[in-house]
Amino acid sequence: TGMVTVDPGFTNTASCSSDITYIDGDAGILRYRGYSIDQLASGSNFLEVAYLLIHGELPDSATLDAFVDRVNRHTFVHEDFRTFMGTFPRDGHPMAVLASGINALSTFYPESLDPHDPETVELATVLLLAKTRTITSYLHRRRAGEPLLYPDYSRGYVDDFLRMTFARPYMEYQADPVVVDALDKLLILHADHEQNCSTSTVRMVGSSNANLYASVAAGVNALSGPLHGGANESVLTMLQQIQGSDVDVDSFMTKVKNKEDGVRLMGFGHRVYKNYDPRAAIVKESAHAVLESLGKNDQLLDIAMGLEEIALNDDYFIERKLYPNVDFYTGLIYKAMGFAPAMFTPLFALGRMPGWIAQWREMQNDPETKIGRPRQIYTGATERDYVPLDQR
Ligand code: CMC
């Protein structure tokens, strides 16, 4: 029906209309619901931004309190769920465990699955925001063989996440306020980014009326790839490889430019930004603040800044409009906070959760939504006769 054109990677095809996030890739502008990312990162907090993305407006203080309180009350996970999480190999990649865990949540909360009932969708929303945080802290602890810690309602979302991740049982834990603030900012910066690979996946899966958990679990898997969220872990691997080898920064960059072995400068380039990623600018500033506050002097930060300096002045990168993206400096902050590289992409997922939910809900409520079903141009064999096995 009609003319079908191929658009690999959908570089020129809009899959939906959306009121949620605005990006001007040439100017390096990012806004959630009309509010600039700079103002939200400096003035707001993660759960308020989650509310804004999902419900479209900033909440008043009573509404925000009720929302935060409801998320808090759902932060425990079922004991059987904990047992389930404990069955994965300890050194298995946490993104696989996270996707499996989120998928499994649907079996624990069957009362939250109807995609057409607003109250049920709100329940699933709250459960996901609450339990993903608990699961993420446990992903870190299991790797070290440490027990899951129970949530503490009296603490904030980020503050208690850090405690659940890093505290020893029965011991006082006080997170550094600079670290709490930086992580809150990072979660805000990751909270939505319109129709990227994982979000498009969430919408695609949800368009079949699959439940929110199934849709978001698919998004986590899409995020895990090194060209998408997995880039934050790949950046650190790249920096460590440069640090640990005799390959200096200049010869590494030569390799990238010659496209030797498909090597890319990880954390650089973006489909939409053809200018400095506004998130990367905030992250870079934050990396300095956190390292300074923790008294950490990471040589990898110097290597990263050296790579950026070269790239921003090099024709290869200038011609292709390749700038640092959000993933370039985040890993250095997470590392300074005490997270292993394998935890970097789960932290991205924790931050992206409100965006996935908001986009899924918008899709469900959009009268124009149809099941996602792209067309193709067939290039295979024309009709031919089956040849029995003994005649081949
Ligand atoms: N290093 C070296 N060359 C690059 C890079 C890079 N990081 N990114 C793009 N290029 C080159 C690419 O080789 C191509 O060159 P040519 O015109 O000679 O063929 C040109 O720039 C255009 O690249 P593309 O692959 O057509 O661009 P795309 O829009 O399809 O890909 C991207 C976007 C983000 C996948 C890509 O820039 C990339 O692989 N970057 C490294 C991985 C990364 O940092 N990903 C995180 C993205 S931001 C947050 C997120 O989504 O998680």
From TrEMBL:
Lineage: superkingdom: Bacteria
Cited InterPro entries: Citrate_synth-like_lrg_a-sub, Citrate_synth-like_sm_a-sub, Citrate_synthase, Citrate_synthase_AS, Citrate_synthase_bac-typ, Citrate_synthase_sf, Citrate_synthase_typ-I
Name of one Pfam family that matches: Citrate_synt
Catalytic function, reaction form: oxaloacetate + acetyl-CoA + H2O = citrate + CoA + H(+)
SUPFAM superfamilies: Citrate synthase
Keyword annotations from UniProtKB, A to Z: Transferase, Tricarboxylic acid cycle
Pathway noted in the entry: Carbohydrate metabolism; tricarboxylic acid cycle; isocitrate from oxaloacetate: step 1/2
Record-stated family: Belongs to the citrate synthase family.
NCBIfam families (alphabetical): cit_synth_I, PRK05614.1
Protein name stated in the entry: Citrate synthase
Organism of this sequence: Paraoerskovia sediminicola
